[in-house]
From TrEMBL:
<dbReference type="InterPro" id="IPR011234">
    <property type="entry name" value="Fumarylacetoacetase-like_C"/>
</dbReference>
<dbReference type="InterPro" id="IPR036663">
    <property type="entry name" value="Fumarylacetoacetase_C_sf"/>
</dbReference>
<feature type="domain" description="Fumarylacetoacetase-like C-terminal">
    <location>
        <begin position="76"/>
        <end position="280"/>
    </location>
</feature>
<protein>
    <submittedName>
        <fullName>Fumarylacetoacetate hydrolase family protein</fullName>
    </submittedName>
</protein>
<keyword id="KW-0378">Hydrolase</keyword>
<comment type="similarity">
    <text>Belongs to the FAH family.</text>
</comment>
<keyword id="KW-0479">Metal-binding</keyword>
<dbReference type="GO" id="GO:0016787">
    <property type="term" value="F:hydrolase activity"/>
</dbReference>
<dbReference type="InterPro" id="IPR051121">
    <property type="entry name" value="FAH"/>
</dbReference>
<dbReference type="Pfam" id="PF01557">
    <property type="entry name" value="FAA_hydrolase"/>
</dbReference>
Length: 290
């Protein structure tokens, strides 16, 4: 199953496009893409039984706005240094436990929304984003996937100057500028994936330069271990998201360093999940609010 947020309304992917969930369910489920995670079990049961034949498809035009499939999570967790090659390029030892920080929810934007670059030192970090479907508290790793609604493509956009200011790094703040957590285009349930634990992940510039390419099987702490670790400290709630870390190839670690520039487009993809295309713009450019 694949769900999306199209023009601010919850949509379900079917053969030939997407259908509006509120209309198709006769109001059983509303238009809010975030609210559906509180009813995830009932929603998946309804979607599995749905006969989509003859139902009108959503018209997608150049003006269609694809929002994040999880627009307002209560908690946004992020994992640093979760690929050994990325830890190596950062010249930091592989962490003995997951390195956890947060991205603030107001950073979330959609898969086609412009990313405003506030400085000349904004970096990319493509990541698999896990979305929680049922509350999990002190969950063991063997049961962790049972609590996952699905996954989506994400970017942990990072402003490196602010991140490294002061004696203690400013991870959460430097990674939470407006639009610095684009996600989408769809949430994909794991039964749709060729191998939920081994997916190609990468990003490039629209001009053709590949920036990152790796496989999620190279995670130091796989998704079940991350969920078990996080839920041992605090409950994970329906609709929460976890950015699971980035492979090597970030701009800050290059020689010379490379950062994002206005006028280009950042293309991010994960095998079987989808592709995002986010234009990069300067401050003051008339970009939609996120």
């Amino acid at each position: 199953m694949r769900v999306a947020n199209i023009d601010g309304r919850l949509a379900l992917a079917v053969d030939g496009g997407h259908i509006d969930v509120e209309t198709a369910s006769g109001g059983r489920f509303g238009p809010d893409a975030q609210a559906v995670y509180d009813e995830w079990a009932a929603f998946t049961e309804w979607a599995a039984a749905l006969d989509s034949a003859g139902r009108p498809r959503i018209e997608v035009t150049a003006r269609t706005v694809w929002g994040a499939p999880v627009p307002r999570p209560r908690q946004v967790f992020a994992i640093g240094l979760n690929y050994a090659d990325h830890a190596a390029e950062s010249r930091i030892a592989v962490p003995p436990v997951p390195a956890v920080f947060t991205k603030f929810p107001t950073a979330i934007s959609g898969p086609e929304q412009p990313i405003v670059l506030p400085t000349a030192t904004v970096d990319w970090e493509v990541e698999l984003v896990v979305v929680i479907g049922t509350r999990c508290d002190r969950v063991v790793a063997d049961r962790a996937w049972d609590h996952v609604a699905g996954v989506t493509v994400g970017q942990d956009i990072s402003e490196r100057t602010l991140q490294l200011q002061g004696a203690a790094p400013q991870f959460s703040l430097a990674k939470s500028y407006r639009g610095f957590a684009p996600m989408g285009p769809e949430l994909v349930t794991v039964d749709e994936l060729p191998n939920r634990d081994d997916l190609e992940i990468g990003c490039s510039l629209a001009g053709g330069d590949v920036l990152q390419r790796g496989r999620t099987s190279a995670m130091i702490f796989p998704i079940p271990a991350l969920i078990a670790h996080l839920s041992s400290v605090c409950p994970l709630l329906p609709g929460d998201v976890v950015f699971t870390g980035t492979p090597d190839g970030v701009g800050m670690a290059r020689t010379p360093q490379q950062f994002l520039s206005p006028g280009d487009t950042l293309v991010s993809w994960i095998e079987g999940v989808g592709t995002m295309r986010n234009p990069l713009v300067s401050p003051g450019v008339d970009a939609p609010a996120v």
